[in-house]
Amino acid sequence: MGKKANAPGTGPAQAEAPGAALPGQVVLVLQGGGALGAYQVGVYQALHEAGLEPEWVIGTSIGAINGAIIAGNPPARRLSRLKQFWDGVAYRGAAEGSGIFRPFEDWMRVLAVTTRGIPSFFTPSPDAWWMGVRATVGLARAAFYSTSPLRATLARLVDFDYLNTRQTRLTVGTVSVRSGRMRYFTNRDAPLNVDHVMASAAFPPGFPSVQVEGEPYWDGGIYSNTPLEAVLDDRPRRSSLIFAVQLWPAGGPEPDSIWQVMSRLRDIQYSSRAESHLERQRQIHRLRHVIRELAKHIPASEREQAVVQELLGWGCGTTMHVVELDAPQLDGNDMHRDIDFSNSGIERRWMAGYEDTRRALERAPWREPLDPIEGIAVHRISAEMPDASHGPAHSGAAK
To answer: What is the DSSP string of 202-263?
Structure first.
């Protein structure tokens, strides 16, 4: 299905000097969104070809899966392992058509994925389908699907020994079933294994919870699907260039049917108030910079006092450049787009992520001067959906 991906460092987005003039560590933030996660792989491919490997990847759900494959392999293997995963989940059904038959074919694909699952990802659970939703089966089996295939897939595609050498930091978001509190697991603090990634992708009631350290966890996306806040709250703080990949649009047109209302509801729910979180973080970071500036006006003798030092400790001079990459929506696929594992859906989203990131790298807005009082700069890259016949050939879908 087309040409091989460009070799690392030779793509059209190659920077003059990778890493030069960057405002800090490179961080990749990945939302959850099922099949929409193909867009994230296009984003990574463009960064990879530009020689910008992330120092930290943080993700939830499909973002945790993509993130584990990236951080759990040496740079030279990452793209091929991502291709293997997405080739494995691509729907192998009837040839995709267009025109008047397209809605029917979309419906047949959704029906097939819903009833048969995806062999390398999830399969129907007999307990739920035959015993009913009220049957008492225990938390570990209380789901419509089994994710045992995903466990085997991750074991094959992620080198957890390499991951835990901490060449790249990985953080995955989960939520405790019992307490309802968000918890992030990171290999910076303790070794990660397949259970941590599985827990971050355990979206109920489709997928069962996963035990980590004796506690059951679900997909962190049901609490906060945008893990950007964990980066901005991290300690110790470091200046960062953050590529925040948004799969669900916070804004959108006014719906005029029940079907469109249901689709819009999911957008709002899974965008997880990313904009409001970011605005709050901008205010907090600005105050940190204000404290730093105020310190310059305190006499040196008073600055040495312990109580003053403690107060000044709330200030900082780090800067955060957030590059927002918003995945576009495909025509004719709204309500079920997160299970659109069709070859064309995967390919078009992958290409869109690649092209959007190439434009971001070409513009390099983080090189623009930043007000010293402002700690966070947000750069929004408008999404454009490239035609499937153009752009990079990545062989990400099934042949």
So the answer is: --TTTS--EEETTEEEEEGGGT-S-THHHHHT-SS---EEEEEEE-S-SS-PPP-SHHHHHH
Q: What are the two backbone dihedrals, phi and then psi, of residue 152, each rounded to the nearest 5 degrees?
A: -65, -40
Residues 174 and 199: beta-carbon distance below 8 Å: yes
Q: How far apart are CA 70 and CA 171, in angstroms?
A: 12
What is the SS3 assignment for 175? Answer: strand
Q: What pLDDT, on a 0 to 100 scale, did the predictor assign at position 114?
A: 84
How are beta strands 320-326 and 240-246 bridged, if at all? Answer: parallel
- AA identity, residue 221: G
What is the pLDDT, as a whole number, of residue 96? 56
Q: Which residues contact 192 (CB under 8 A, 6 or more apart)?
A: 68, 160, 163, 164, 170, 172, 185, 186
* Residue stretches of the chain with pLDDT short of 50: 1-19, 385-399
What pLDDT sits at residue 313? Answer: 83
Give the C-alpha separation, 293 to 287, whole Å. Answer: 10
CA pair distance 188, 56, nearest whole angstrom = 10
Give residues with Cβ within 8 angstroms of 294, minimum separation 6.
Answer: 315
Helix, strand or coil, per DSSP, at residue 132: coil
What does the alpha-carbon distance between residue 123 and residue 80 come to, in Å, rounded to a whole number?
A: 25
Q: Which of 260, 279, 266 is nearest to 222 (CA)?
A: 266
Task: List the structure tokens of 74.
Answer: 């040496």
Q: Taking the CA atoms of the chain, what radius of gyration do you get in angstroms?
A: 22
